[in-house]
Each structure stands twice: as C-alpha cells, then as structure tokens.
Amino acid sequence: MRKPNLIQIKATMVLKISLDQASAKIRTGGPVDEKADHSLDVWAGHVPVKRQYLPPITDELIDDGREVSPSVQKLLNQS
Description:
It contains two helices and no strands. By secondary structure, the protein is mainly alpha-helical.
C-alpha cells in the first residue's frame, strides 16, 4: 500500500468535535404516528435509501488492460 504524499497530507483535515448530546433514529418501516397526528397538515412518511455500487471506471491514465482488483470485484459481488 502506498503512503500518502506531502500534498495529500497537507490537503487532509481531521476534526474532533465534542458533543454534549446526539440523537439518531434507526429502524425499518414507515412512520408510527398517533391517530390524532394523521389529521395534521404536515407530510409524514420515510425516504428509502439504497446503497448501490455502479460498474468501476478505470483511471484513463492507466487503462492498459489491467483487470479490476479482486477486492473491488468482491465488493461488487456483495451488492
């Protein structure tokens, strides 16, 4: 594995953020609202998210017929 060069290191920033509170909601399925909430004039629902890998694109500067690496092939086969 190649180590990053000086330009890449200078262009990289790492942030440390202290949080007093955090909140997340993770579950499957639609909203579970109170019956009284159904008549409110607001939208309710959920937005599905799909993670999908698209076909790899070889760097045009090294397009000399090299095969896509086994690790990338494995990643594509998992999706």
